[in-house]
C-alpha cells in the first residue's frame, strides 16, 4: 500500500511539473532539457505557484498543511508561490452538499431541518480536514457548523506510514537521523492529526482555550454548543471579524496595526508560559480581528502543551537570549540533558554567540527566524544536541507568529515586546512571589494532609518499632539456631569420645 501511495505522489508531482523546482538548478540544465523533450505532451501552461498548489490539494490534507505552513514564510518563498499557497489556508475546494447532508443526518439520526432552523448550503470556509457552514438554531442562535471531510482516515494513514518509513530510513542512513528523533517527530505529528479527525476533541480544545481567555481584552474564543457536537460535527458560536491577512481593511476600520502585532506576540507568550497550552496552527486563515480590536481564534484541531519543566527551561533560554547571556543558554542545554554532560560550555557558548549576536537590535523585517533556526541547527549538530519532539509544535507556531508579525508590522521589535512579559513571568516563578504563588497553589492539598500528620507520624513510628522488633526476634532466632548447632556438635563429640573409651576397654 505504501508503494502505491509513493507512486501516486511521484505521479502527481510529475503531472503538475514539480520537477521544475529540482531541475531549475544551473548544474542540472542539461537534464532539464532532456526531461522537457521526453515530456513534451504535458500541458504546463499554468504558473508554477498554481501548479504547486494544485498538486498539494491533489495529494491530500497532510500536503495541504505543509503548504499552509510554507505560506506564512514569505521571507523564504518567491511572492508568486507564497500568494498561491496562501489560498490553501481557507480556499481548499469544498466537498459536495450531498456529503454534508449525509454526514449530518448520520450523526444526528434525523433530518437536518429538525436540528437547524436555517443552514447555508455554500461553505463559508473550506480547509484540508473540514469545511464550515453557517447556520441558525431553532432558538435563533447564529452558529458555525464544522463538518469533517469524509474518508480522510485511510489517506492520512497511508501518508503517515510513508513519513514513518522515510524517518526510519533517515535515522538508519543519515548520521544526524537518530539525534533528530525523526520517528518520534512523525509520531507526534500523527498524534495531533488523530486529534484533528475527532471534532469532539477539537470542541474540548476550544472550550479549554476559551476558559483560559474568558473576559480577555486580547483574544476572543467562540463558545461551544455541546448538545450539537459529534465526532464528525462541531457547532460553535458564530464570530464575525476581518481576516488578519487583510491589513488594508483592518487599517480602514481604524485598527492600530503595530499595536495589533504586539498584542499577537503577547497572546502567544501568555498561552505558552502562563497556561502551557497554546494554539499550534496559527496561520492567517485561522486568525481574525473583531471590531473591538481583539484577536479571534478558530480551528482548534492542533493544540500544544508544555510541562512546568519545559516552560521553565524555555523561559530561561528566551531571557538569556534577550540578555545576550549565551553562556547561560549553553549551560541550560546541558542542565536539561539536551546536550551531553561533557560538553564544554565555553565552546558551545561561542557557537551560539556567532549565530545570535548578528540578529539583535534589528527590526523583524531584517531578521529571519528560519535562517536563525537553521544556523542553530548547524551549531547544535556540532555539539550533539538532541532535538526534543515535544517542542516541534512550539517551533512551528513560533514560525507562524513570525509570519503574522511580518505581515502586520515589519518594524516590530520582537525582543522588546516579549522581554518584559518573560521577566514578569520569571519573577512569579522564583523568589518570594514565586514561593507565595506555589504555597497558595498547594494550600488545598496541605489542608487535607495536615490533619492527618499525627496519624501518619504514629504509623511511621509504629512501622519502625515493628521493624525493630522483627529484627530483634529474627536475631534471637538466628542466635538460638547457632546455639542449637553448637550443642549438637558438642553432643556428637561427647558421644564419639564415649564410644572410643568403651572400645578400648
From TrEMBL:
NCBIfam families: PRK04750.1 (NF003404), UbiB (TIGR01982). It comes from Nitrosomonas supralitoralis. Residues 87-332 form the ABC1 atypical kinase-like domain. The chain crosses the membrane at residues 486-503. GO terms for molecular function: ATP binding; kinase activity. Pathway: Cofactor biosynthesis; ubiquinone biosynthesis [regulation]. Belongs to the protein kinase superfamily. ADCK protein kinase family. Keywords: ATP-binding, Cell inner membrane, Cell membrane, Kinase, Membrane, Nucleotide-binding, Transferase, Transmembrane, Transmembrane helix, Ubiquinone, Ubiquinone biosynthesis. It comes from the Bacteria. This is Ubiquinone biosynthesis regulatory protein kinase UbiB. SUPFAM superfamilies: Protein kinase-like (PK-like) (SSF56112). One of its GO terms (biological process) is ubiquinone biosynthetic process.
